[in-house]
Amino acid sequence: MTLSVFLELVEIKAKTASIFPFLLGTFYALYHFQQLNLLNSCLFFIAMLLFNMSVDINDNYWDYKNATGQEKFRQQTNVIGVNHLDINKVGWLGLSMAVVAALIGIYLVSRVGWILLFLGIFCFAVGFLYAGGPFPLDSLPLGEFFSGFTMGFVIFLIAVYINVVPTVIFNWQFIVPIFIASGLSQCAIGSLLLANNICDYQEDIDLGRHTIVRFLGVSNSLWFYAALLILGYGLLLISMFLHILPWTMLLTFLVIPLIYQNTKKFFQVHIKKQTFPLAVKNLFIITLTQVISLAIGLLFR
Fold first, then answer.
1. Are 190 and 148 in contact (CB under 8 A)?
2. Do the Cβ atoms of 147 and 196 come closer than 8 Å?
3. pLDDT tens, position by position, 212-245
4. Angle, helix 38-66 to helix 114-129, in steps of 10 degrees
């Protein structure tokens, strides 16, 4: 397996969906609590990235395995078939990375406490049930919610908690502000999966998947995509109004014209290879500007 094929297998281009929420959570801990546990943060980052890659390998693995009788999808779309990879070796690679991530996670739990264990179990469960099991989440109208909630909020939450434990109490007073602060990330990540399902509408029907696009239709799903981004920016405004995030987050609104132009083009043409990268760009632009804006906010703390 070449490096380029490996990076495609782990879907490296989509890693902003986990890396940026991690950075936002780390900066949030610095902004509100002036605390940074470098060892905990490094351990979590490595475990998170390894597990994220293992999940994407698992997704490609099960997409290939479950596409029985769909040889066109297997050989022309799925990265395993396109690159003639050994399906068993791919499975073992994903499992190995997950095991290493779990071992690091267990050590981190020994440093942080049992709350992290439950958060980690939730992430692992969502990760493996996303494409595996009898009812994969990516084949149900729940994928957008679970991807946005888990990557946009739970990663953010863990990144904060591992830096401030044991000086804070893990209660609703701690959790709710983080949920609001992560709102734009949750919506942007969920919108990326929605854009993917819009592009794969016919393919998902052929493969027997029942995504939310199948229920709403393509036209309504496009408006739902736009509504998610609007909702996310609304939550960002609320977080600033409540002083959860600094006023420097207003810088995030400067990229709205870029987001609008990309979304407008996606509305016109929603073909996977042609315009899905626009949705990826939207996520990258939104989350990157959030990270930069919050980093600047630290200077005015």
1. yes
2. no
3. 998 999 999 999 999 999 999 999 999 999 999 9
4. 20
